[in-house]
Amino acid sequence: MQTFLQYTILGLAIGGSYFIAASGLVVTYTTSGIFNFAQGAIAMLAVFTYWQFRWGWNWPAPLALLMVLGVLAPLLGAALYQVVMKNLRGTSEVTKIIVPIGVMLGFQALATWVWNPTSSTPRQFQKFFGPNAFVHFGSIKVSWHEIIAFVIAIAIAVGIRLLFVRTRSGVAMRAVVDDPELLQLNGGRPERLALISWAGGSFLAALAGILIQPMIGSAMSAGQLTLLVIDAFAAAMFGRLRSLPRTLAGALVIGLTTTYVIAYFPSKWTWSSSFRNSLPMIFLFIVLIVLPQDRLRGATVLRLRERFRMPSIRTAWIAGLVLMVVVFCLKVIMERTAVNTLTLALTFAIIALSLVLLTGFAGEINLAALSFGAIAVIVVYHFGTTGSGTAARTTLWGILLAAVVTALVGAVIALPALRLRGLYLALATMAFGVFVSRMVLTERNERDIFGLKFTIFTAGQLTIPKPKIGPFDFNSPDAFLFLCAGLFAIIGIGMVYLRHSGYGRRLAAMKDSPAASATLGMSVVRLKLSIFMMSAAIAGIGGVMMAAQIGTVNSDRFDILLSLSLMMITVVGGIGYISGALFAGIFLIAFVQMLDLTLKKFAVDYSSIEAIFLFFVSVVTVLPATIGITMGKNPSGAVSDIVAGLDQIKQSKPLVITLVGLEAAIWALAATDIITNWHFVILTMVNLFIVPVVGGKILLARAMRGVPKPVPPELIGIDRPFTFDDLAEMDRALDLEGVVVLSAETVREGATGVSA
Amino acid sequence: MSETHYHEDHGAIADAPLIELVDVRAAYGTIEVLHGISLSVPQGSVVALLGPNGAGKSTILKVVSGLLQPTAGEVRLAGRVVNGAPADELARLGLCTIPEGRGVFPNLTVRENLWMATMSGVPLADVEEIAYARFPRLGERRKQLAGTLSGGEQQMLSMARALSVNPSVLLLDELSMGLAPLVVANLYEIVAQVSQEGVSILVSEQFARTVLGIAQYAAIVLHGTITKVGTPAELEDELSAAYLGS
Q: What is the ipTM of this complex?
């Protein structure tokens, strides 16, 4: 009985903290329609900042609390809204999910930068009134901290409820979600309300973090803390991001069950700790599936700012060939380590292809691509290799089996999640990803599964050899590089074929309007299921290639945060493009690493200003997230900009010849060792960026001087306002003189005002 | 500039138009949809904007209400240029807009919807009193979510706001959309009453006949320009041409 009470109180306190974090989610979602994935990261930053004030600089607790909760957290939230989230109006669901994820990853990198996790002294974070402040109720003793946590949670529940129902500002906050324009027409200020609610949401996140950190009793870790508050997502979902009482109930259930698992599961069950950690995610998954969802929505066609153009099949083949040639040319001049990096980048690009297929083509979201990779790797490790030692090889059958198994797992995940869309599906996949990380990849003990004895994740790491397919052995780094490049090209071209097929058009239709697709007689269920399976299989193949390139992988390689980074960078590159996936792989692996190495090299070379370069090394760690955050401004992605730029260049032959000629010359210099690879990279960048820009300017200047090209009649008025002179022009072009009654003159005559 | 300002000066500026558009152009993105609109609404009168789908009627109302900034020209309210003024500020100054087909917040109760109307300075008690007196049906459903009301009841709710905030200018967009003819007639009766209290009203309609009964002036909008302006009687012949021609 004593244990029960003790753990019940701890569970209520932890549940209360979850509720505080979840209520912050509800508040921000209510006013801005954006689900704040960065909630956990804000909590994490607050915990670290509070630690800095309280124990780093020995401030008194009230001052530190006032500073963090009263000043910094609200300011951070307000700034987040003003600078980042405000720009997300009118973007697709994917962008609305990706940008907060970028913020989350950015904060995480920032925390690791400022509070070095490998520092020698572990940071201790204590409960309020110190670790020994207890109250005794009969035989049980309860820490003041737990009491405070629970009381604050209840107070906040009541407070927010009153705010939302009893105050005009609170009701107006709810009105913002329904219709910000209408609120404006009523005289309300939607922007200001959203700003205030983000400040409040950030405050709640910070409060939750500071309350929960000492209760879990482990050392402060940026990653762990961020994910800890993500556990609150389940509670927020249970309240359907609206109802606070339900959110409170959900949070308390999660808090209680997780503590009961610790209290009552027999200690010989080696999996109970992982089970406790994945419980909130299991809960989230179940909640998402069981709770009633919005019906298929038809009527409104969203006008989005994203625009994607599919390449023709011919272009796809040419692009594939160009990729192979470029990879070959690079291989000739590159060192061994650089070849390895490029190969790894290509394997990530293959995984990113799965995201392009799923999100870019079908509009569904998977936040756990690498978790599917992990499953494929486990399959290959156990069933897909031959030989041993240096003669070990991954077999073709092993890879195919892995693809099939991941596709089936994909189906198992997608089947219940089929009714979900957008945010809900994203969260369901994320729950799956975290579950895989916490439950499956931590399985290091031998288990008896269906009479089959084996260890899922042996010794915490799996060794995957390079593949051998038929007579072709891809054990050498060069051969494997070409295998990955070829695989990327083939899957990419296959996807372009798919997109141009009837199936691909049905996907596009489903992406635009599931309701309309259903009324046209398509089986939305079958479409979703098949595309999810295909995407999972591609992610699986990419995961196996990634593991084979690295050699021995541990569970960190499949971390959910890495999946999120990959998704984010793919969206940055352009989620609708095959090349967006290539961009993601190259950027996330090769580019970041290259910048990192270059800066570190400079730091050694110029040791007098070493600090400056080391500073930029840290900047590089924040870079991907920063780029992700800018997505709100340019939701079509970087690739679409590049494509638009290329279109300009393509019109001028001299420019194309200059560009290609210069690049060939630079390459030749590098191949003959006249210049180093560093110079090659820098010159290439200069060539690729400067020539188009300068050339474009010259082209533009020439166009300004010369006579403008005549516009074909069908394009009149499309890229600029339509005028009545255009009408006349169109009539002439179409030989319709005198047919149209409405001429410029008659219209202008009529356009006089009412005289009173 | 207080909202009562217009009423106090009623006699002095009766001849001056309360809303005036001078050669207004507006665009969605790069596509211009209003090509130089000039129009004035005299104080206390009802002016109807008529025209087919996509002619630019709603855009004109958006420009006047401040939701869309004109790319050229001037919007004047009571003689003052209000280009660039945010919609919420204009609303608090006494400009009441009932947007097309969605004048209510569906996830707020009837009472909470009325509460939002108080931002222009009228106490909630007054708003409720006026609304429930005029539409007893709303009083019965004050705790019901507005999204669960019928189309006619929703339109009553949005009209209740127009009645209770004591506006100087009322902008109505497609009042009749999706409603039964009897309901429409009833709503326009209210509009006529509001106008008799000195409120200047600009109303857009596709379904022309009902509104011509109460409008002093009407303007035919076609392809983003005003092709004809006059009293309803003068426009009888033009109307059918506007819908059927070109």
A: 0.87
